[in-house]
Amino acid sequence: GENVEQHPSTLSVQEGDSAVIKCTYSDSASNYFPWYKQELGKGPQLIIDIRSNVGEKKDQRIAVTLNKTAKHFSLHITETQPEDSAVYFCAAPVNSGGGADGLTFGKGTHLIIQP
Amino acid sequence: SAVISQKPSRDICQRGTSLTIQCQVDSQVTMMFWYRQQPGQSLTLIATANQGSEATYESGFVIDKFPISRPNLTFSTLTVSNMSPEDSSIYLCSVTGQSIRVQYFGAGTRLSVL
Residue B87: helix, strand or coil by DSSP? Predict the structure, then answer.
């Protein structure tokens, strides 16, 4: 099955600066990589995802890049704001089959935006 | 995306008892999953809830401990049986939307076992 590693575990940045969170995966056949944001007391919220047929995807201040050769993908948040403070999780399908699978998650990154 | 309701939102239970968690979706969905999130940890997939048939469990999770039902396309239950303090976690339901890959999560059930 898939194994996902996530770094760093904690990231503190100044408001307005950029934040980058990185994940690596083990199964070269994996083809879908979502990112979730979890605020205290809430369920994970999907913020962006990428499929293996593209190398980058952007949505306003958030972008995800994928390097299939190196088997890693990254979340980029620009112009960080206090409301970006949360725990962020990367994920990949448990199995690399073409159907709908559950997800295996990274250990999470606690992002702290310093005012 | 679908609106996902989980009940109860939290509970405190005694060891040796069982708790059934409900997940209700406001539209028909293809896939439903159950996850566990231990305190301060990441999410771990428990099982895929299959409509009208037995759930598919991940390694380390068994039906006797976590029986799951899914009688239709909008509803599923997870039971945590014979609870111990180690079962204290957040239990989360997720569903897929129009894309079978994209998963959306409920708010979770926060369970404490004394």
Answer: helix
- Asked whether the predicted pLDDT for residue A97 surpasses 60, the reply is no
pLDDT at A13 over 90: yes
Average pLDDT over residues A48-73: 94
Q: How confident is the model at residue A98 (pLDDT cuts 50, 70, 90)?
A: low
Is omega for the bond preceding B85 within 30 degrees of 0, making it cis? no
Instruction: Check whether A109 has a pLDDT greater than 90.
Output: yes
Distance from CA of B75 to the nearest CA of A (A): 17
Residue A57 CB neighbours (<10 A)? 15
Residue A42 contacts B where some CB pair is shorter than 8 Å: yes
Sign of the alpha-carbon dihedral angle for A74, A79, A84, A86: positive
Nearest CB to A100; choose among B41, B42, B101: B101
Identify the H or E element spanning A21. Answer: strand A19-25
Sequence-distant (≥ 6) Cβ neighbours of residue A10 within 8 angstroms: A109, A110, A112
* pLDDT at A96 exceeding the cut of 70: no
- For residues B37 and B92, the answer to whether their CB atoms sit within 8 Å is yes
Rounded CA-CA distance B70/B79 in Å is 12
**Any B CB within 8 A of A54 CB:** no
A75 touches chain B (CB under 8 A): no
